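Q: I'm a student working through a structural biology exercise. My instructor gave each of us a protein and asked us to get a predicted structure, then write a short paragraph describing it. Mine is Putative ovule protein. I'm not confident about reading structure output yet, so if you can add a plain explanation after the tokens, that would really help. Here is the sequence I was given:
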Amino acid sequence: MYHAHLLFDKIPQPDIVLFNFLARGYARSDTPLNAFVLFLKILTLGVVPDFYTFPSLLKACAGAEALEEGKQLHCLLIKYGLNGDMYVCPALMNMYIECKDNGSARRVFDRIADPCVVTYNAIIMGYVRSSEPNEALLLFRELQVKKIKPSDVTILGVVSSCALLGTLGFGKWVHEYVKKNGFDQYVKVNTTLIDMYAKCGSLADAISVFESMRNRDTQAWSAMIMAYAIHGRARCAITLFQEMQNTQVNPDGITFLGLLYACNHSGLIEEGFRFFNSMKENYRIVPGVKHYGC
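A: Happy to help. First, here is the predicted structure for Putative ovule protein. I'll explain a few features afterward.
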């Protein structure tokens, strides 16, 4: 990004297209607010932003959790008449959500005359992240009433809401909905179902979902290992980890967190130390606070 910025500065009369490219790059970088600084510069040069400009800037503010800068962008959106754009609104809601201002995100959502599934997904996932599952489920019901077809992202939010509430009955209804509408083809949806069943107290259903999966990534294996750990089945968690190794799927920090949690609650001290050392020495995974806590 440093060299791209230098090239941009050498252009006598930069246009908004070039800025949009640079802003998108900064939004994905470790220094997202540099996009905002550059934006102020092009405004002084008389360059007029378009509807491609703001999603990247809002993403930059979301990444930096820069609420005040995000609010300033919101004001500019209203000034330029872009606050109702179908691409801008989800980015605006996501900015408020990442900045932990769900109230403003909801107000943006409520002003949209005809919200699409992408817009619904943004606000539903926002409620899930802030542990407000009832609000998320109410929006899912509203989406159904309007006969808007949900996406796999919608289903992730709904299943996660069931996990937060611990409602096994409704969780099973959602699972049937998943199978009926073909969402069980998505690995992430199945992984979230495993997590939901584990947290709702049904290990048998979690195992059933896991065994029905044709493809299993690291997150799926980790979710099942954690499910065993939650239910005090340490030996099953360890055996599953060995199966995971045999399939040559690389573990991550969550995998080892599940193993350490299982060992901790079953008094398997030696095995726990072995896994803790293995994650550092064999897999180059840096332990976090939660790993040390186990």
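A: Here are two points you could use in your paragraph. The radius of gyration is 23 Å. The chain has three domains: 1-108, 114-211, 216-294. It's a good idea to check both against the output above yourself.
Q: Great, thank you!
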